[in-house]
Amino acid sequence: MANNQSNAALSASKNSFNLLKEWRDSKEAQKAYFHQANSLLRESDDEIRQMKRQNAEDAGKILSKAGASGIDLSSFNDAFLSEDLKNIRDIYDKQKQAQESAQALRKQAANERKNRRDKAFSYSVGLFSDLMNLGL
Prior knowledge:
Layout: H1 2-69, H2 77-134
Helix pairs in contact: 1-2
């Protein structure tokens, strides 16, 4: 009887320790997923700002060269429009990719939370069973 109770107490302690460890690890993993998602979006925003700035600088350089050479700037409108549309599409694709990646990371964080609750329930049932074996 004493051996059975000591085994139940040991099992209860192990379940408690595992529950706390799993909970902490899962919380950290969830935070890491959210941090990755936010970091990804910030990096994407920085790259997009840089792309827009570079596009504006390139357009300004071309306009200044064309204006200094005396060329009619209206002949460049189609080329500028085409280049602007290409850059806008690149920016849109970059934003879309970053948002999809961030959404996937946030979904992983939500799954981590669900798994944490499921594991906590499982460990709690095991702990309750062990406590019942102790006769408490």
